[in-house]
Structure formats: C-alpha cells, structure tokens
Amino acid sequence: MKVALVNPFWTYEDSIYFGCRQPHLPLELGYSKALLEADGHQVLMLDGQIQKLDNAALADRVAAFAPAMTVVSTAPTYLFWRCAPPELRVPADFLNSLAGRGGRTVAVGPHGSATPAPTLRKLGADVVVRGECEEVIAELARRDNWNAVPHTAHLHEGKTVGNGGVHASSFVGHPPLNWPSDWIAAHSHHHHRFDDNQVGFGAEVEASRGCPYNCSFCAKIDFRDAYRRRNHDAIVTEIDRLIGQGVGYVYFIDEIFLPQKALLEALVDRDVKFGVQTRIDLWKPELLELLGAAGCVSIEAGLESLTVEGRAVLAKRCRLGTEELAALLVNARRHVPFVQANLIGVIEDDPALVDHWRKHLIDRGVWANEPVPLYPYPSSPSYRELWGEPDDLAWERAHEHYLASFRTFSDIQEKRPRALAELEATCCSH
C-alpha cells in the first residue's frame, strides 16, 4: 500500500498556541513511517514547515503520489500534543486542499484522542486515531475493514462509532529513526536553547514517554500518559545518526526527563549538546553535575508554583519546600548554562511571595518566567474537575473559559486570541 504521512503547514495567527512556532521533527510520523516500511508499505512523509510547502503544495504532492491512505496530524509534533493549537483550521485547510485525492484519510493527534466526534466533523476525515498513533496507523494499513481496527473512531449516518479506548504505544522497542538529510539541514532551530554557542543543526529525540505524575494542568490523560523508557541502544544509535548529519543540539521531548545515568554517561563522550524538560526535585546534586558534563545546556524545570499552597493545588506531589527547590535550581545553574523555573498563574499564590522568589532565582542566574494563565485542555485533570468528561463542545468550552478568565496572556501572543469558532470558520466546514 502507498501511505502519505503529512505534518501540515502550521500558522498561528490569533491563536492561543503556547508551543514553539519553529519547525520541529514530526516524531509520531517518523515512528509510523518506520513501522509501515517494516511491513513493506511505500511511504511518502511530508512536513510543511520543514520543507517550506503550504497546504495546497502539500496536497498536490500527496495527489501525485496517489496513496491509498493519507494521515494528517492535528498538532505540530509529539512535543506539543500536550499544548496543541485548540483550533483545527490548519489540518482542515490541508484536507480541503487535498479534496479526495489522497485515498482514505486519517487524523491523528490530541483532538481526536479526547473528542473524536467534533474532530471527525470539523475535518471530514474518514477515521481518527484515539491516543498514541504509530501502531494504529500500521494496523490501518494492514486491514481493509477499518471499522475493526481498535483505538479508532468514525462517523456512521452522522453518529460517532468508536472501537475501543485510547491507545498507549509499547514505545520501548521503537527503532532508531532516520530523517532526510535535507530536513535536518533545514532544522537550524535549537529548541529552548539560549546560550551563545549554537553550533550545528537542531533535532528532537524521545528517550522516554509519559509521566508518573498527574499534575492538574497537564494534558496527557488521553495520550503520552503512562511512563515508559525507550531502549538505550536505539536512543544512542539515533543520536549518532543525527550527529553524522551535522546535528549539534538535541532536544529531548520527554514529558519528564528523569535521571538516566547510562544515557548521560553515553553522551559525555559525544559531540552534541542537549536540552531537557524535567522536575528539579527528582535530581540529586551529583546527577546534576553529570547532566552538565554530558552536554546539557538547557533545563526547563516544571516548578509551576513558587509556594507550597500553589503546588498543592496543582497536585504536584512535591515533598520539597520552596527554599530546597530554589537551592536545587541554583545548583543546576552551576553546571548548565540556562535553567528555567516554569511558572503557571495560580490564584492561591501570594503575588508578593512569587515576586520575592522570582527575584531570588533571577539574581542567581535562574530564569523564572512571569506566571502564565492556565488553559484547561480537554485531556487535563483540570478540565475534568471543572466540567467532567469532554463532550463535543469541550474545546470551545475550554477556550471560552480561558478568554473570559484572563486579561493578560502568555508573552508569545501579540494580541488577544480570537474565539475558536472564528478561528475555524473558514476551514472547518464539513
């Protein structure tokens, strides 16, 4: 079978999107390609941003390939499934441009995982995958009867028909990925890196998936939830391939990069720098020293709140006090050029106390951002505490709540985001 895997051409005008807007490797499509090719399928993989192709050009390339199945992602990359653009205008624009020329169509991503019915209606896709997608895509390519494939949903006479719940990939045995050299050469961006020695191309790698914690704000219930650690040899082989293609910086997309001594020791002797997102309370001083020696130049530490009360509200399950956390962050900064304490706006936090600890950290070389408003994504515990299980209007409800609750938004947004219906009006018309 011929299969097209497409990461569309992303644009973010008037969106609340919290993720980075630079191109990143579409890891979920990379894994899918590896599994499909192992089964003997012919695969065309496209990425609008990396290849500088708009959705019309992507659609024309897919049509020329004449696949039996076309897969499109509703988030820019696995890195941002937890904070995807709520609106579906970009994948809808691609599918509208494709207009029946790509065989049966499949949507993968956080939207169909949490809310399959509105995702199917807005996109006009034949099927959505619920949960992590790579094995399900491979299974769809094996079967003629898609209705029997687990972890999918489709529309039948206007009603949603689901087959099983959300899928959790085995992940542990995923093979090392191969990326086209021209894609790597187009990836100049070093995600979440801020030092002055940015040599070589950038890339993203996944060493583990999921997180053993269940913080209230984290959108992972329907995908990338249970913690799994990938095979060590596959990770190192993938990184060595990237280094051979001129990559000088790797960003680990892991929800929580837990201390992995063997991996850090393997990176010590390799000519590559890297960045991670983690919880600082899980690191001991000697492992922070090894982290720096291995080449880490950027730590995004999910502190979320600078008060005990705020961390409790966010269900952080953190045993350390603010002074201890601050000391660990400062210690990390001795070994790593950039350390950030990620902060979320929590109503229980005393603004004066937050200002005190932010200044304390910044004066010691640790960046602590202004607390940003919390968006209740449908796959987060905070959404379900407010409204219960997501229904067909879950994204609209979360969006309206966010816009009504805050006057200032994150600093990456140039102006007030527009309502979801306005953002989707021109494309999501199925």
TrEMBL record:
Entry annotated with the keyword Magnesium: no
Keywords: Iron, Iron-sulfur, Metal-binding, S-adenosyl-L-methionine
InterPro entries: B12_rSAM_oligo (IPR027559), BchE-like (IPR051198), Elp3/MiaA/NifB-like_rSAM (IPR006638), rSAM (IPR007197), rSAM_horseshoe (IPR023404), rSAM_sf (IPR058240)
SUPFAM superfamilies, per the entry: Radical SAM enzymes
MF (Gene Ontology): catalytic activity; iron-sulfur cluster binding; metal ion binding
Gene3D superfamilies per record: Cobalamin-binding domain (3.40.50.280), tm_1862 like domain (3.80.30.20)
PROSITE patterns recorded: RADICAL_SAM (PS51918)
Cofactor (UniProt): [4Fe-4S] cluster
GO cellular component: cytosol
Signal peptide range: none
A Pfam cross-reference name: Radical_SAM
CDD domains in alphabetical order: Radical_SAM
Keyword match Iron-sulfur: yes
Domain of life: Bacteria
Classification via SMART domains: Elp3
Domain Radical SAM core: 197-413
NCBIfam families: B12_rSAM_oligo
Name of the molecule in the record: B12-binding domain/radical SAM domain-containing protein
